[in-house]
């Protein structure tokens, strides 16, 4: 019965983690470029009271044993990088990647972070930056006399300048992919950084060699499905209740034992 109390307690802790992850997904349902998280669980070690294959007599062996589990634990939380829906905007610097890939931005310490959030703007120097002011990598600067900025699906950035008939190419947006994007570390602010599990970034041009293309005037919305997350929330709540019932049942049994005379 004490074992049942401990096992049920681990179940309640695991379902609390499930609810935390699901709540975060729902909270970011309107976050640009957000990727939902999935909680994965593992059973804990087992107490083997009789191993399978134990001899029952001189001739026969038991086909099964007696193994009692000790509960559950959170094995990992995993980002799912499925494509989110694209929302049309009127912003010339609103970009969405359709397919695989991440934009690169330079952090204040000089390191590179990666994002699917393509809501870019211009800073006071005309440099393309994200909402936090981090410049796009490679850096692209739009001159003040630019009338119109055009970004191709292959990432080429051109601008129509005053008193010039032909557009001028300003630069090339490069995107990166990873062998294991689920291994990226989420830093908040719609940013990810490389880890040993993600592998090094693979740099390429949009639309080439499996990289997704860039869509100007669009933003990628979160890939969270509200109905699915609500079902997960209900499932986790019910599982939490079932484990609490197991705690109550074990407590009742202990109470009955303590009342024996």
Structure explained in plain terms:
This protein has 261 residues and is an alpha+beta fold. The protein has helices at 2-27, 226-258, and strands spanning 37-43, 46-50, 66-69, 72-79, 86-88, 95-98, 103-106, 112-115, 121-122, 128-129, 146-151, 156-161, 168-172, 175-177, 185-188, 191-193, 202-204, 213-216, 218-220. The strands form nine sheets. Strands 11-12-13 form a three-stranded antiparallel β-sheet, with no helix packed on it. The chain has a two-stranded antiparallel ribbon with strand order 1-4. The chain has a two-stranded antiparallel sheet with strand order 2-3. Helix 1 (2-27) packs antiparallel against helix 2 (226-258). Strand 7 (103-106) and strand 8 form a beta hairpin. It folds into two domains: 2-46 and 72-80 and 224-258, no CATH class; 86-220, no CATH class. It is built from two helices and 19 strands.
Spell out the blueprint of helices and strands.
Elements: H1 2-27, E1 37-43, E2 46-50, E3 66-69, E4 72-79, E5 86-88, E6 95-98, E7 103-106, E8 112-115, E9 121-122, E10 128-129, E11 146-151, E12 156-161, E13 168-172, E14 175-177, E15 185-188, E16 191-193, E17 202-204, E18 213-216, E19 218-220, H2 226-258
Antiparallel strand pairs: 1-4, 2-3, 5-19, 6-18, 7-8, 9-10, 11-12, 12-13, 14-17, 15-16
Helix pairs in contact: 1-2
Coarse structural class = alpha+beta
- Total number of beta strands: 19
Globular, elongated, flat, extended or rod-shaped: what is the shape?
A: elongated
| Count of structural domains | 2
- What is the gyration radius calculated from CA atoms? 27 Å
Biggest sheet record: 3 strands, antiparallel
The helix/strand order is HEEEEEEEEEEEEEEEEEEEH
- Adjacency order of strands in the biggest sheet: 11-12-13
Counting DSSP H or I runs of 4 or more residues, the number of helices is: 2
Distance between the amino and carboxyl termini: 19 Å
**Which ranges are low-confidence, i.e. pLDDT below 50, for 5 or more consecutive residues?**
none
Helicity level, as a percent range? Answer: 10-25%
What share of residues are in beta strands? 25-35%
Mean of residue pLDDT? 93
């Amino acid at each position: 019965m004490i074992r049942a109390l401990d096992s049920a307690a681990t179940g309640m802790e695991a379902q609390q983690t499930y609810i935390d992850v699901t709540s975060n997904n729902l909270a970011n349902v309107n976050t640009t470029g957000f990727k939902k998280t999935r909680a994965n669980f593992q059973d804990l070690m087992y107490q083997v009271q009789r191993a399978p294959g134990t001899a029952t007599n001189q001739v026969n062996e038991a086909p099964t044993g007696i193994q009692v589990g000790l509960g559950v634990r959170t094995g990992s939380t995993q980002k799912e990088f499925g494509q989110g829906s694209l929302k049309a905007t009127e912003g010339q610097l609103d970009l969405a990647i359709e397919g695989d890939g991440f934009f690169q931005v330079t952090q204040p310490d000089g390191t590179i972070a990666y994002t699917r959030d393509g809501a870019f703007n211009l800073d006071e120097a005309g440099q393309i930056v994200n909402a936090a002011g981090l410049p796009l990598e490679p850096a692209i600067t739009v001159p003040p006399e630019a009338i119109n900025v055009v970004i191709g699906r292959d990432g080429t950035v051109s601008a129509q300048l005053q008193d010039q008939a032909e557009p001028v190419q300003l630069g090339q947006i490069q995107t990166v992919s990873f062998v294991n994007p689920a291994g990226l570390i989420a830093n908040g602010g719609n940013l990810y950084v490389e880890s040993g599990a993600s592998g090094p970034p693979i740099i390429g041009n949009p639309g080439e060699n499996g990289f997704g293309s860039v869509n100007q005037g669009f933003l990628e919305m979160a890939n969270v499905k509200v109905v699915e997350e609500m079902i997960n929330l209900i499932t986790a709540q019910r599982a939490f209740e079932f484990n609490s019932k197991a705690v109550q049942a074990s407590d009742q049994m202990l109470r009955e034992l303590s009342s024996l005379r």
